[in-house]
Design brief:
The protein has six helices and eight strands; from the N terminus they run βαβαββαβαββαβα. It is α/β, with parallel strands linked by helices. Belongs to the adenylate kinase family. GO terms for molecular function: AMP kinase activity; ATP binding.
Length: 204
């Protein structure tokens, strides 16, 4: 007999730590982590069935359980998602915009691998180069200080109706703070009431 599925997504502005939270959810609850970008690439290249990984199973016997960060991004996407899977839980990360601006502006990447560094709290061993290859790091155009404020404003405008929609359905759970490590225990406690964890909070 198939177990009941708990369908959930993680929302938040650029730089809010969606990917980090989803990686921790995946480890702590025995799930697979796929980003919304991966979903889109796999959708375009592999038959289009890309929303199934948004399902968190209540037990671990189901196929392809995963954490789904950053989707839906707009009200149109939220309504499209409604036609495919009814969400049980939406996690919204609320980080002060000043914190996000500082965090994004300090972010540099290794283009070939996608490895991300933050000059404030996760710098490379040698300034300006990737730890593994020694190749130069670059700053994405949309992470430059002048572009960050525009990205955050755009997110706020697009996300407001999505958040209001899920709030009206009673499935929105918002978590506020400036550090993922301080937000995470509350996310873990919420999900532990829905899904049996495979790791304790301390083991994540």
């Amino acid at each position: 007999m198939a177990s009941k599925l708990l369908r959930a997504v993680v929302l938040g502005p650029p730089g809010s730590g969606k990917g980090t939270v989803c990686e921790r959810i995946a480890r702590s609850f025995g799930l697979q982590h796929l980003s919304s970008g991966q979903f889109l690439r796999e959708s375009l290249g592999g038959g289009g069935v890309w929303l199934h990984p948004c399902c968190f199973p209540a037990s671990h016997s189901n196929f392809c359980p995963a954490a789904c960060p950053g989707f839906p991004r707009t009200l149109g996407q939220a309504k499209a998602l409604d036609g495919i899977c009814e969400l049980d839980l939406v996690i919204s990360l609320n980080i002060p915009f000043e914190t996000l601006k500082d965090r994004l502006s300090a972010r540099w990447v290794h283009p070939a691998s996608g490895r991300v560094y933050n000059m404030d709290f996760n710098p490379p061993h040698t300034q300006g180069v990737d730890d593994l290859t020694g190749e130069p790091l670059v700053q994405r155009e949309d992470d430059r200080p002048e572009a960050v404020a525009a990205r955050l404003r755009k997110y706020k405008d697009a996300a407001k109706p999505v958040i209001e929609l899920y709030k009206s359905r009673g499935i929105l759970h918002s978590f506020s703070g400036t550090e993922t490590n301080k937000i995470w225990p509350y996310v873990y406690t919420l999900l532990s009431s829905k899904i049996p964890p495979v790791l304790s909070d301390e083991e994540h």
